[in-house]
Amino acid sequence: AQTVTQSQPEMSVQEAETVTLSCTYDTSESDYYLFWYKQPPSRQMILVIRQEAYKQQNATENRFSVNFQKAAKSFSLKISDSQLGDAAMYFCAYRSAWNNDMRFGAGTRLTVKP
Amino acid sequence: DVKVTQSSRYLVKRTGEKVFLECVQDMDHENMFWYRQDPGLGLRLIYFSYDVKMKEKGDIPEGYSVSREKKERFSLILESASTNQTSMYLCASSGGGSGANVLTFGAGSRLTVL
Q1: B40 chain-A contacts, CB cut-off 8 A
Q2: Hey, is the C-beta of A95 within 8 angstroms of any chain B C-beta?
Q3: pLDDT band at A100 (very low <50, low <70, confident <90, very high)
Q4: What pLDDT, on a 0 to 100 scale, did the predictor assign at position B19?
Q5: Does A24 touch chain B if contact means CB atoms closer than 8 Å?
Q6: CB-based contact B42 A107, cutoff 8 Å
């Protein structure tokens, strides 16, 4: 079974600075999708960014970008110009291309200091 | 916007009670999921459903059952609640087809079993 590991339970960043959240995963599949979800204190989980494994180019969404290293099975999230509203739990997730099973990491709590 | 609505944000139940958690989505999504969220463990899949009256077990189905009589509604049932089922429960939905479809989550239901 696939597993997703987030080794940083907590991270903090100064407002306007850059922070990188780490994620590694274990799979024997070649086709899959990777996601970062954000869960603000209000608890509604929302999608931040996603990456298709067959694409070599790293996904970007405004201030959010990923560093996808397929051989290393690593999928980190970089947040640039951090804002107070970025404070949340961030979950890395893996989804096989062949079924609906989505696996989540344990999460990283990000604090943004003003 | 896709909307996933969970009927109760907070519930307090007693050991042995039968508990129903309701989830409704309004975007005609084929797939619906129930996750359990615990600190340090991330999200764990309890059950999912890919069609009306269809269901599949996730990682932790013991002590839970589900019902999907209509496409838009997916219910999680705790036949006899126990204290170790105290947790945050998240419902999610996604469209069919490509594995790239993302999950849309509800706001969550925090259940306390006394």
Answers
A1: 9, 106
A2: yes
A3: confident
A4: 96
A5: no
A6: yes
Residue B99 near chain A (CB below 8 Å): yes
Per-residue pLDDT band for B101 (boundaries 50, 70, 90) equals: confident
* CB pair distance less than 8 Å for A42 and B33: no
Residue A42: pLDDT over 80: no
Helix (H) or strand (E) holding A48: strand A46-52
Contacts of A114 (CB under 8 A, 6+ apart): A15, A84
**Which residues, listed in sequence order, are joined to residue A51 by a DSSP beta bridge?**
A34
Q: Who among B41, B90, B99 is closest to A95 (CB)?
A: B99
Average pLDDT over residues A30-45: 90
pLDDT at B32 over 70: yes
When pLDDT is averaged across residues A59-70 and rounded to a whole number, the result is 96
Q: Are A1 and A101 in contact (CB under 8 A)?
A: no
pLDDT reading at B2 higher than 90: no
- Cα separations in angstroms, B105 against A37, A69, B5, B73, B89: 10, 28, 8, 14, 11
Nearest to B19 by CA among B31, B30, B10: B10
The tally of CA atoms less than 13 A away on the side-chain side of residue A28 is 1
